[in-house]
Amino acid sequence: MKILKFGGTSLENAGRIDRVTTIIRNLLQSKEQIAVVVSAFGGVTDLLIQAAKKAAIGDGRYSELEQQIEDRHVHLIRELITVQNQSHALAHIIRQLNDLHDVLHGVFLVRELSARVLDFIMSFGERLSAFIVAEVLKEKNITAQFLDARQLIKTNDRFGQAQVLWPDTLANIQQYFQKQNALQVITGFIASTLKNETTTLGRSGSDYTASIIGAALNAQEIQIWSDVNGVMTADPRQVPEAFTLPRLTYEEAMELSHFGAQVIHPRTMQPALDKKIPIRIKNTLNAKHPGTVISAQANAWPYPIKAISSLDAIALVSVIGSGMIGVTGIAGRIFTALAREGINIILISQASSEHSICFGVLPASATPARKALERELKLELMEKTVNKIQVENDLSVIAVVGEKMRRTRGIAGRAFSALGHSGINIVAIAQGSSELNISLVVEQKDLTAALQAIHKEFFNLQQETSR
Length: 467
Ligand SMILES: Nc1ncnc2c1ncn2[C@@H]1O[C@H](COP(=O)(O)OP(=O)(O)O)[C@@H](O)[C@H]1O
Ligand SMILES: N[C@@H](CC(=O)OP(=O)(O)O)C(=O)O
Fold this sequence. Notes:
alpha/beta, Carbamate kinase, VC0802-like, 2 domains, 6-stranded antiparallel sheet, about 20% strand, binds adenosine-5'-diphosphate, binds aspartyl phosphate
């Protein structure tokens, strides 16, 4: 069994959906056993979120976005399904869109949008797309069946970023698949609590859905189909010279995705790693390209690093004070206070002088982090052991990643001098304990230039021969 996941970029318009159906048909013809996971059509989740947010502030223009969502889906049905079969599909999606309308109107009336309601609203994207893809496949004489993953994937109620309840989920998936003969077209991204409330697995979480299903069914391979020839040495939108990596280890892929390589969601690796299932990243627009295989196996690679990824916007929070030198337990208190507020720390960097501890968070968490620390360190601030808690905005973080870095000296030095030669200021540095990753914080305005300079430093010499 292979699990194929098609992301929003693979489902952006009728032409791309047609390519998806061809890929599926070819695999079925070569007698592969497959199941398909789909994301919402490209851009639809964003439209749903925008509509919900507008409704919540009482802006009646949410209905224009609702109309756009309806038009996208109706239009695709008209383009992809023959007239005689259209009415069934249209009737189904109109019912769904009416439900969506009712919820959005409710949000508009009460002027309130909880994380729970937002998850329910977002779920329409995948419910509509998976249904339509299944109908399009049926149109091509493939015995396909729409499957709402909320039936199978059970989570806690951390809406927006729900955590999987593994025993229930694995049992549900295994039992369900024992009885199915038709090709399952499964909604990515969405799940439900034990009380059947809709949850989501975090933005871009459809990759994770594929991995959950793959692990439950002991799949032979999990394929993530996107719009690039696999995981590349950098985001090709930022670094045009970036090229495809034939192989990556699970750990490398985790580091890269954690630091912004959008092509794969960070949570996807764990279920696959546990069951030793390879993940292959493929291009819907270039199906013949072998893409990237992510597995436990490291490969021979001529460069000292594997890839560079980046998070465009982070804030750096620093706790500064000469009185902190040698004081045990202060770092522990800082991180416990942040954990209590549910603040996710992207990187930690401590200057060797121990004068300051600084850590990177998403911009939205910077003020809550500062307030939490001001409360926790009230006494120290009064006594001036801690002088100030400082927040710096408009920063980006770059991660330089690769297994080989553990054994190669001087990588950090080369990255620093590459930035130095380009006149780019490094705001902070951190090294992960795994030594798989060096992170550099730079000013946001310098991000693209910094990525290009580091890419050139490590890949320029032998690039042409290994593409
Ligand atoms: N290292 C990388 N390798 C490949 N693509 C990357 C990388 N970093 C960022 N990307 C971006 O990820 C995009 C695909 O991710 P995403 O838009 O989430 O796709 P999908 O909708 O198919 O899930 C690519 O178009 C590419 O610009
Ligand atoms: N539709 C969801 C889930 C997802 O995985 O999308 P994509 O595969 O297009 O990144 C989102 O936009 O977050």
